[in-house]
Write a structure and sequence with these properties.
single chain; about 210 residues; mainly alpha; about 80% helix
Length: about 210
């Protein structure tokens, strides 16, 4: 694998990773409630999903998403439904926390998510996003050398994963540093409200996306 191609791919992947999206909002939702270990489990889920999408792209299965309107529709609607479900759950938590913050009535505190649940939230958020597969399908032909093999392709997936780990781990530990502020009930109401609306927005956008 040519070093210049790897550098160019890392540059593109970095722009993709740092751009606002469901991953960042999932981290922002997870860490204040469940701590840095759950946040890192989210990140591990992201990485596992990248290798799933990378493997499907390497073996040509993801081409179905581009060539088959029905396959694209099914996957994008599953992804949209999952993101909207996360959004609704966040809004319900915001309502619950609002009752706590305003001392309106006693309610059950929102329970932290387990490491396993956090991992699968990260994994499903990316696995059910057809745009990740399309990214790999578009990127591999441009950055892989002529006659490149599966090892070359997996090196690109690994590079993307490392960028993801560095960026989101930094986000996790930054949020952990300010956890005392983010633990305030009113902040949780605001955070859950914003993330709920954003996830519903991402889900709606994905549902309306067209196969290209």
């Amino acid at each position: 694998m040519d070093l210049n191609n790897i550098i160019l791919f890392v540059s593109v992947a970095t722009l993709l990773v740092i751009s606002p999206g469901p991953n960042g909002f999932l981290i922002a939702k997870t860490v204040p409630l469940s701590g840095h270990r759950a946040g890192l489990a989210n990140v591990a889920g992201f990485v596992a999903a990248f290798y799933v999408h990378g493997t499907l792209s390497i073996f040509g299965i993801s081409i179905l998403l581009v060539q088959s309107a029905n396959a694209f529709l099914i996957l994008k609607m599953l992804g949209a439904a999952y993101l909207i479900w996360l959004g609704i759950k966040a809004l319900r938590n915001a309502i619950s926390q609002s009752k706590v913050a305003n001392h309106c009535e006693p309610v059950l505190q929102q329970m932290p998510v387990s490491i396993k649940v956090a991992f699968f939230e990260g994994f499903l958020t990316n696995t059910l996003n057809p745009k990740v597969s399309i990214f790999y399908l578009a990127a591999f032909p441009q950055f892989m050398p002529a006659g490149g093999n599966a090892l070359s392709a997996y090196s690109l997936v690994t590079a993307h994963s490392l960028v993801n780990v560095v960026w989101f781990s930094a986000m996790v530990f930054t949020l952990t540093k300010v956890k005392s502020a983010t633990s305030h009930p009113k902040f949780k109401v605001w955070l859950n409200s914003v993330t709920g609306i954003v996830f519903i927005g991402f889900g709606t956008k994905l549902a309306l996306a067209k196969s290209s």
